[in-house]
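ESCALATION

Customer reports they have been waiting on this structure for their group meeting. Please prioritize. Original submission:
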Amino acid sequence: MLNTILKYTGLFILLIALQILLMNNIQFSGFVNPYIYILFILLLPFDTSSWLLLLLSFITGLIIDLTSGTLGLHVAATVFAGFLRPYVLNLISPREGYEKGELPGIQTYGFRWFITYILIIVAFHHIALFYLEVFRFEYFFRTLIRVILSTGFTVLFVIIIQVIFIRR
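Update from on-call: job pushed to the front of the queue and completed.
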């Protein structure tokens, strides 16, 4: 139990540091903003209770908001992603269901399942984040392009991190 808590604390600190120090400085004409901190919520165990999932989502978003000065945008988007996670997992669950103690990942359920899982949650996270940031329909298509490009780059970075750094 303590080992698991330490592992997730380390993952949390690493992803937040990568986001703040590296990813927040990657911008391509204001259209591409990869947000890899969402990987922390994506990699939590399947049997994480709903209240803990939402609390961890809130804390993650709050730290990103405090360091980037966005006043609740990341909190709202990350809590929304945390709220959707159980529904998405239920939607894409294998026929036999998830085994107790398993973790979401490429090694566990395969590349296709993992891509579907992260693509859905990251897309909804980015939709909430960017449309709350703009908060008007005047820039609907411009924001949609930002959502699509940022989702693509975030998914790419998440897959790279999953393949290279995360081991079973």
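Sent to customer with the following note: The helical segments are 2-21, 39-42, 50-68, 73-91, 106-109, 111-134, 140-164.
Escalation resolved.
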